[in-house]
Specification:
Length: 146
């Protein structure tokens, strides 16, 4: 196990919210997370399901306004993540060549545009908000692929 700081989340808990300022990035140790974006009607549309070893919450580093481009919600009973704070990530990025930074920014912008288009074209399978404020995705997004 790494000596990095960790956080734990429970099923339905929002880990990060679209539009809020970014200040950290996460690497999933265990559990599953869905990434969702709001469509024009304000519904949260799932666009990706991530599991152990995957990273999320990094795109704010390459966006001029430093805002979250999507929300991340825990869909496993328990989700454990390693936390990478903005200052350490910016230090790593500062050591990259300008061409490498351009590549990362280009990939980030392309992913943002693609996920925005998908959100508007996706079937209307949005998430339900429970009375306690947690979000409940449909079972379609919780099942593991085999």
């Amino acid at each position: 196990m790494s000596s990095r700081p960790t956080q734990q989340f429970v099923k339905g808990q929002t880990i990060l919210m679209e539009g809020t300022p970014g200040d950290r990035t996460y690497k999933i140790i265990s559990g599953d997370v869905i990434i969702c974006k709001k469509n024009r009607d304000g519904n949260l549309i799932p666009i990706a399901k991530l599991g152990a070893g995957e990273i999320f919450g990094e795109m704010y580093l390459f966006d001029g306004n430093k805002a979250r481009s999507a929300s991340a919600i825990a869909v496993s009973s328990e989700v454990n993540v390693e936390v990478y704070f903005q200052n350490e990530l910016e230090e790593m990025i500062s050591k990259l060549s300008p061409h490498t930074k351009d590549i990362f920014e280009g990939l980030s912008n392309r992913l943002r545009k693609t996920s925005d288009k998908y959100t508007e074209m996706a079937p209307s399978k949005s998430l339900s908000q429970l009375p306690d404020g947690t979000l409940k995705p449909s079972n379609t997004f919780i099942r593991k692929s085999t």
